[in-house]
Queue: 4 jobs
Job 1
Amino acid sequence: MKIGFIGAGNMGGAILKGYAPFAERNGDKIFVYDKKEEVRSGLEEAFPAVTACGRETELVEKSDIVILGVKPNLFETLLPEIADVCTTDQLIISMAAGIRISLIEGYLGADKKIIRIMPNTPAQVGEAMTAICRNGNVGEDDFGHALAIFNSIGRAMEVEESLLHCVIGVSGSSPAYTYMYIEALIKAAQANGMEASKARVFAAQAVLGAAKMVLESDLSAEQLRINVCSPGGTTIEAVNCLFENGFEEKVQEGFQAAVDKSKSMTK
């Protein structure tokens, strides 16, 4: 497969870097265009499977799958530029928050195969969570190619487009909330005498292990939490303190703020 990335910033770059080793093993070719020449050349030098392109249209003409990684406010400029070189055989994948499939169809044509995704930045370490939705032109074979790309950098699941606002709250933006939690643990450990480098590892590994247990256990997250809390022990003391201070409610409020912002941005 020939896979093109238009835009290689935080998210597009994370997906490209995560997928590049798989592409090399699989014999896929990756094309990249970014407005910053140093980004293009840097990716070309770093990954044997990557070839830089000088224009967006050049990339589209060379690619079987085109992944649009530019910011949402650039779509109304980008889509008319590439419309004439997009074909009905290609798969167009957008990761822009707030840009509906119907808007992309309006520029590229209702006959085009269009997928919309909502990934997150852990793609760069092979642990992304990506939501995928598609229009009616995308058959199972094409959808299978998209799933293969995003499953190679973590996990991918199909959802209805109407759920992408929710996805932003639960996985698209939530790494930032998790970093805040880890940062708070690190600061608390330092305040109790642990050096920052060790606190970083202790806190991050604890979060990684807890997340893995949620994914691999048949128990609910609630039951896993209960199982750790021995009566009269240290964990129940901490959990009760967090409950009393509205920990769950504050996380849910942050989640909802991301969802509401996504809805307000939608075109």
Job 2
Amino acid sequence: MKAVLATDLSAASEATIENETCLGCLGRIGIEEMHLVTVIPSNVHAGMPGIDFEKRRRNAIRSYERVIEDAGFDVDVHVVRGTPHRRIRGIAETIGASLTLVGSRGKSPLENRVIGSTARNLARTTETPLLVNRIERAADDPDVVRQHLFQRMLYATDFSDNAERAFEAFSYLRHATQEATLVHVETPKDPGPSDDTDPETQLGERAEQLEGWGIETRTEIRRGDPTDEILAAETTYDPTTILVGSRGHSRLRRLLLGSVSEDLVARANGNVMLVPPERTR
């Protein structure tokens, strides 16, 4: 499996890349080849006085390359120019990546507009599973918030096709997962369950599958606003990563974003993994 690891060479990006535990988690789920990507913004020009961003970035990324090679991965480096989320997404699709990993501090409204904008734009548009690795916000020398990426998973489902596609990610995440919490949030607009769509039954079936893989699993049905209730479950169970399907078949729906997955990227305390709809051929 291949992964794209996007970096802006900031202290936050360094926290993701130099965390041996995080790299170990990626190895356990089957990642063998890592593509380091850094994007020089289109409005930065090589001829700007005293600045050679491309050369500086190539020099800086070499140390990250060595860290990842020492962890046992094959590494390819991409220093490209353009709009960050578009170039990251394009490289992921070109190489056939199974995962895109990007660090984000989140929480602050200003940082969500600037630092976090790449993560949010990827959440809207990615066609590759996206892992947003949460980094400490109020620190000059930040660290990752959760050392183990997949050890404790919180899977949120509305039983849609997109949610089922996200659940399928456990086929490889299970090699690094010890505990899972499966959550369904009922809203006032939900129709009453029929015999074959009872949420407790459906969650139970999924829990049985995970327990068969040796994952300690609990289920919970909550009621209210989906984003608020998923975040409340995060507070209760302290997962290392929230796993959820993302939606976005149309431009309008990407902007509104069904808005749960984008809200989770912005507001969750820990990591968030989004699994997009299957690509339309």
Job 3
Amino acid sequence: MATPHINANKGDFAKTVLMPGDPLRAKFIAEKFLTDVKLVTDVRNMFGYTGYYNGRKISVMGSGMGQPSIGIYSYELFTAYDVENIIRIGSAGSYQEHVDIRDIVLVQGASTESDFAHQYGLPGTYAPLASFELLDKAYNIAKMNGQHVHVGNSLSSDVFYNFQKDSWKKWAELGVLCVEMEAAALYMNAAALGKQALAILTISDSLVTGKSTTAEERETTFTQMMEIALEFAE
């Protein structure tokens, strides 16, 4: 049965969904890595696909940009389509000199300046965390493949163009590795609904060194994080 933002049928999605922000990156992953691929949703051109990777049924779908967007799609996948695991695969900006462009970050905790958690009426500040089961699998697969990954805290920000130009340095001083715009909301939805989530990020640019990658590179060449996610997705 379709939801307001997804027009797939019940059973069209696998238990695990890989979720890049860009729907064109979802298309790239489906066409490059999956077999017997089927487009299962295309509302607002937010493409979702289901296919097979090494005989395992896997889905991939775009989330859009920002916590409100991934909050909508992850909620509908978790509650209406029996999805158990969502693995965000996306890009991030580095806050640390040792976290270079094209490095991979496994997001253990997702700090945020968003008010997304306000809906839960909590008497304090909630700390959104990854599923340890998924994090452990991703870390060990990367290690087995000889891939160096960073594990730690990221910032899920609602602001891309921040008028306080140096505000990122305060997060960096507390060891936050990088910034992106979605993980915290995904982790909160998963926690509230008894599901599992993990964000695997590739560094696209550095606020420390000024180095960056192109939009085309971000769409088509950040394959290591995709391969890590695919190896343990089931």
Job 4
Amino acid sequence: MDISEIIKYLSDSKEIIGAGLFAITFVVYAENGLFFAFFLPGDYLLFLTGVFVGTGFLKYAIGTVLLYLFVAAVLGSLTGFLFGRFFGSNLENKKDTWYFKQKHLDSTRDFFEKHGSQALIICRFLPYIRTFAPILAGISRMNYPKYLFYNVVGGAVWVGSLVGGGYYFGVEFPWIINYVHYVIFFFLAITTFTVVKGYLNFRNK
């Protein structure tokens, strides 16, 4: 299996969910703080996980799923923060590669300047920025207790709303399992719009 096939597999939320809770947990952890994992699914992975639990496809209690993914989101962001704090200068000077784009770091910095510390909560719902925000917080040496507070609150809101929302739809509308691809397209459309809008705003500035 070459690198492109690995990336394709890791980017497929249905494949990840089918692999079980530990695979989902690892992806959530990686996507929330490892700069080379920015391409992994985030929002729609959480939502579909909730749907699959609600419909019984995933045989886990919803409380267990919420706890695992909340911890993964918090620890992932904490990893990114610590990486930024101790190795951030190397990342800022790093040239673009297939797994790292300087523009993602620049757009995240712009987002921080606009929203301040609350960006750590808002950015949970924004692809790419969600991955780089903890790293940038570490680079800027944000006060640790302050960062931890926003990290925990952001993780709880992000996981709770998306997994909880997906679970509700799975329980109340079990037929949604037959339209998973439309759910993915919906989230991808939002993601694309957000990224393009953010890039255009950054370029104009």
